[in-house]
Model the fold of this input.
Amino acid sequence: MLYYVYIMSNASKTLYVGVTNDLVRRVVGHKNKTGSAFVRKYNVTRLVYYEQADDPSTAIKREEQIKGWLRARKLALIEAVNPAWDDLSKELPF
Done:
């Protein structure tokens, strides 16, 4: 089973960092604004970054690492692979 660390955003570039074992399900949840109050309040519906991990502990450690970074470092991570801030969910098999 694969696990994913992902970053969702909105038009104002508010960031939400999460971890999941089903990226498609989680992105659909964000787009439908279900789940946390943060997701509903800030409308973070654009998948701007994700990476895979082979086990849950690695994914959780990476999520915690990224959450601990300053905003500038998170932005640099996103822009290194997605400089246009495209919605990467368009690449996922829905």
In short: The chain is about 40% helix and 20% strand. The radius of gyration is 12 Å. The chain has a mean pLDDT of 95.
